[in-house]
Amino acid sequence: MDGTVQDLISRVRCLPVSSDSAGLIDQLRGLEELKAATAAAQAKVAVAFDLAQRREQAKAGIPVAEQGQGVAAQVALARGESPSRGGRLLGLAKALVAEMPRTLAALDAGRLNEWRATLVVRETACLGAADRCAVDEELAADTGTFAGAGDRAVVAAARAAAYRRDPRSVTQRAARAAGERCVSLRPAPDTMARLTALLPVAEGVAAYAALSAHADTLRAGGDGRSRGQIMADTLVERTTGTPGGVSGVEIQLVMTDRTLFQGDSEPARLPGYGIVPAGWARGLVTSGGKGGKARSPGSAAGGREPALDGPESPGSRTPAAGACQPAAEVLETEPGKQDFMVWLRRLYVAPGAGDLVGMDSRARLFPSGLRRFIQARDDTCRAPYCDAPIRHHDHVVAWHAGGATSLGNAAGLCEACNHTKENHGWTTVPRPGSRHTIEYRTPTGHTSHSTAPPPPGSPVAGQLVRATKLVRT
């Protein structure tokens, strides 16, 4: 690391804390200004790095259209951020340095923090370079225009200035925004989740109005649920087509046999959400999360026999202590609601290290079985600092470079990270370790490591290691 930066870090770490209240407030304000100045310096450094990488790529003969690929991912690694956020940070840096110098000066002086500078840049993204510079001059953020202003005031000012400068571009941006409609899922506290839909305003209002009207009708008929509960339940039922919204969907809840059968308190893991309490996980398995009653295999209505994943010999693999046997239960949900099956599939972990080494499956030797295993082992994208959902099951060492189609050479990645590792100068290789480990090497020679998260119940289950410190080798 650069000696000057290292010296600055050391001085901040050794900063003595003031002994009086007024002095403490002064220190807080000063440190906030230091953070803003650091963000401005990072923007300048990121732009300089982008230019340096493009020059090096040009010398290497990379076509102009492909130059700059992988730069955002390297910025993300250096800042300990996800690749997607690295792209946004690089875009912010370019806009500030090249087109909005007065906003950059305000950030450097501590008149704006990094988030509010981001808001100004975001609201002017639809403008051309000349118009953006003109808006930057109009706002004159470095003179204290936004002193005392909150986020909404900053957004309103930037948006109004952009509209005055080029109303047609703003209108076209609104029209293009419909193409960005999507649905996302984010964890919330207490085993809840936020299902969010980004929709054109007319469709969003119509969907909300329909749910609201339905809730009012049921409430008027004596339904004891709150209005919000009815709307949430209706959304799930209409989306899944199933009362309760669970039947027919594989959710791949991962827990230890001790948690399932012996009442152990070891938390479980729900892909797409994260860690969940042991009692909640047991409740989902034994009653579908609705307080229902479990029945033994073979006792389902109509004499149905649930299909089982057949047991297979683990060979030299060692199962976790008390590893459960393949089994299934058919769960009885609330009256009038559909029955559903719970499948139990054994996962084998290496004793001591906690590395996931095997899994029961009738199709274990086929690609679908291997993909299922990788999904269970990696949980989310294996790239350092990225926790996006797995979209690609990828060779760590590319197949065309001689990489084997094997578990040790496999990784679950999101689409963006899979493309990034194929850029010029990037290499990835498996490394020995107690759990599956991948070494990432960037074009600048820096390396970082990604280690598969331990499954619930392993001796190191509390160590959710994804990446080590970025170092130059």
UniProtKB/TrEMBL annotation:
Give the UniProt keywords, A-Z: Endonuclease, Hydrolase, Nuclease
Q: Superkingdom, according to UniProt?
A: Bacteria
- Recorded protein name is HNH endonuclease
Residue span of region Disordered: 287-324, 429-462
Q: Which residues cross the membrane?
A: none
Lineage runs: Bacteria, Bacillati, Actinomycetota, Actinomycetes, Micrococcales
Stated family = Belongs to the Rv1128c/1148c/1588c/1702c/1945/3466 family.
What span is annotated as the signal peptide, if there is one? none
Which InterPro entries does the annotation name? DUF222 (IPR003870), HNH (IPR002711), HNH_nuc (IPR003615)
According to the entry, every stretch annotated as the HNH nuclease domain falls at 369-419
Give one GO term, molecular function aspect: endonuclease activity
